Amino acid sequence: MDAVYDDTPVLKPVIIFSHGFKGFKDWGPFNIMAKHFAAKGFIFVKLNFAFNGTTLQNPFDFDDLNAFGNNNFSKELSDLNDVLDWVYNHSSQLHADLSRVTLMGHSRGGGVSILKAHEDKRVKSVVTWAGVADFAWHITKEQIEHWKKFGVIEVENARTKQMMPLYLQIYDDYMKNHRRFNIRNAVLHLHQPILIAHGSNDDTVPFAYAEELLSLNPAKAKLLIIAGGDHTFGAAHPHETEELPGVFSNVVMKTQNFLKSL
What we know:
It is built from 10 helices and 9 strands. The protein is of the alpha/beta class. The chain has one domain (2-135, 178-261): 3-Layer(aba) Sandwich (Rossmann fold). Helix 3 (73-89) crosses helix 5 (108-119). The radius of gyration is 18 Å and the shape is globular.
């Protein structure tokens, strides 16, 4: 976990950022993004989910595929709860304004952020970037049957070409807790404002899901359409400059404006 902020004794809003599936806290321009928000007066906290597959020795690669395969949504919600606890327990040291705590997540991290906001009153607003509306929308019946028979399915990491295991336990965790993991229901009953940022050319999580989430709670939700934006808003890993990519920078700026307006 990283917390980026300045130490001036002024209460500052907090952003807790969750990475997505096959992601990690130092992916692409995430570190530059954190510094940007800190320079604008935010406390920016980003975390690696404990079972995301990276290690302390090598935080930029998936060296622990066994951990990756044993990750699940219950564990990610527990990790997010631990970070919220840490922010609250260190609020004086951080000069944190606990009336302005935002959960922000990319892709699957957006879905986890929505669920946590729904069940935790400490969260005051939510931001999703290319967020999912359902954890199971892309799983076929054939894959589930294979899962049950062999105990594992594999997904390819397009960047590293690794075949990454998903053990049956994630399916079992989902089925056991499917009501808790219902993102649509969480949005429907969300009391906090939520910004839904989504690229119109996202070929990983269809833009239609963003429109659906907006329709579930138009009183609290705002849709930010990123014209021509893909799933990562033009960002890639590794990112080797100190500048944010153009489309990605636009999303950062508009997210900042949304949070400042609350």
